[in-house]
Each structure stands twice: as structure tokens, then as C-alpha cells.
């Protein structure tokens, strides 16, 4: 039996490329949202219950953002599965519970699609 540490070199390289592409997409999305007037509060916020790519704020509104790098907008939106939405919501509950003002803030769940050769596309209140 081979464990996860015994992956073939091609699989490891492919995974590393995908991670780099995802991190680049997150930075690009953060820059785009800052240009739109949002303040980035956290990137890659991780809890035992899930992970949130970006947490942004504008006024009293907090947005928990999932970033997807895909070739087409539809594919980016479809990539945010029900399971992913559940994990993002669970992680957002943890984040909100750790803030004194968490109960007074309004919040939503957004998606940013990062597409090749185009500016990122922000989908507010996506789920």
C-alpha cells in the first residue's frame, strides 16, 4: 500500500502548480476588491470547520469570498459546490464568533472568478 507521501512526482508537481495558480488568483482577487473599495481583513482563513479564501469589509458589510480560477465564469460558479458552501459558512461562523462586533455586522457570501486574460469578476451574494 502506498500512502499519500508516496505520490508519483507528476502528481506532486501538478498539485504544486494548482496551489500556486490558486494563490495567485487569490492575490489578484484581493487587489481587484481593494480597487473596488473593500478592505481585506484576512486571506486563507482556516479553522477546523473549513477555510475562507478572503474576508473583506466595506462599511458594516463583511463578505466571505471564495476565489475560483477557471477558464469560464460558469465553471467558476459551478466549482463552489454545496459542500464547499457548507464549509465556508461553518468557518464564517467561527470568524464572526471571535469578533466583538460580529453580531452587529451584516454579511454575505461572494465568489470571485479569475479568468485567463480578463479582469476578475465579482459575484456578490453568490450563495
UniProtKB/TrEMBL annotation:
InterPro entries (alphabetical):
Restrct_endonuc-II-like (IPR011335), tRNA_endonuc-like_dom_sf (IPR011856), UPF0102_YraN-like (IPR003509)
Q: Which domain of life is it from?
A: Bacteria
Task: Quote the SUPFAM superfamilies the UniProt record gives.
Answer: Restriction endonuclease-like (SSF52980)
Q: Which Pfam families match?
A: UPF0102
Concerning its family, UniProt says: Belongs to the UPF0102 family.
**How is this protein named in the record?**
UPF0102 protein M0654_10335
Protein's organism: Neorhizobium turbinariae
Q: What is the lineage of its organism?
A: Bacteria, Pseudomonadati, Pseudomonadota, Alphaproteobacteria, Hyphomicrobiales
Amino acid at each position: 500500500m502506498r500512502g499519500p507521501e508516496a505520490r508519483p512526482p507528476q502528481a506532486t508537481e501538478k498539485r504544486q502548480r494548482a496551489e500556486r495558480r490558486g494563490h495567485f488568483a487569490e492575490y489578484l482577487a484581493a487587489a481587484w476588491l481593494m480597487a473596488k473599495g473593500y478592505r481585506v481583513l484576512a486571506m486563507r482563513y482556516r479553522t477546523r470547520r473549513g477555510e475562507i479564501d478572503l474576508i473583506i469589509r466595506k462599511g458594516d458589510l463583511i463578505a466571505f469570498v471564495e476565489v475560483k480560477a477557471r477558464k469560464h465564469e460558469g465553471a467558476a460558479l459551478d466549482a463552489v459546490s454545496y459542500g464547499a458552501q457548507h464549509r465556508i459558512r461553518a468557518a464564517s461562523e467561527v470568524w464572526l464568533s471571535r469578533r466583538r462586533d460580529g453580531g452587529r455586522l451584516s454579511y454575505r457570501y461572494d465568489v470571485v472568478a479569475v479568468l485567463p486574460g480578463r479582469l476578475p469578476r465579482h459575484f456578490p451574494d453568490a450563495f
